[in-house]
Amino acid sequence: MGSEESANKKHHVISQKVGELVDENKYFYNEDESIPVIESLFGAHIGKFVLEIGSGTGAIAHWLVQRGASVTAVEPESVLAKKISPRFSSADDIEVIIGGSTDAYRKLVEENKIFDTVIYLNVMEHIADDLGEFNKAKAVLKPGGKLLVYVPALPWLYSQIDADTGHVRRYTKNCSEKLLQSRGLN
Predict the structure, then answer these.
(1) What confidence tens digit (pLDDT) does each residue in 101-110 have?
(2) Which domains, from first to last, does the chain contain?
C-alpha cells in the first residue's frame, strides 16, 4: 500500500470515528463557539448563493441557510455527509453532494451553476493540489464573487496530528494571499 493510499485509509478511519462521536454527542466541534467566529470573519462577505466545500456535519451550511442563503454543501466523507440532511426541513434551500470536490465541481459546471460565495473552512489543508482547487472554485464563482478560506496557520506547528487527520500543509497569511492572487482571486 502506497503512502498516499495509507494516509487516505487512515483519514477515512478518523472520519468514521468522528461520525460516531457526533452520534454520541461527543464531537469536539462546538457550534456555539465557532459560528460567532465565522460570522465575525466572513458574515459581511456571504452572498445569496453559496457553495461550501467540506461541509462536515452541516453546521456551517445550517447557519448559512438560517441567514437566507441557498446552499450547496459538498462533503466527501459519507459518514459525515449523512449528518447534514437531518438538520434541514424540506422548505430549506439546500443541496447536499456526497463526494469529492473534483466530481462536485464537474457536476456544477455541467449544470451551469454559479455562486456568489465559495467557502472552504478548515478544508484546503486536506487538498494536495490547492492551486488546482482554487481554479475549480474560480470556475463557478460569479464575477466579483467571494472565495472565503479559513486554514490552520503556522507551518512550524505541523505535526503528526496534522498528518493523521489528513492535513498536507499549514499556511502562512502571506503564502495564502500569494496563492490566491496567483489565481486572480483576492
Answers:
(1) 889 999 999 9
(2) 3-182 (3.40.50.150)
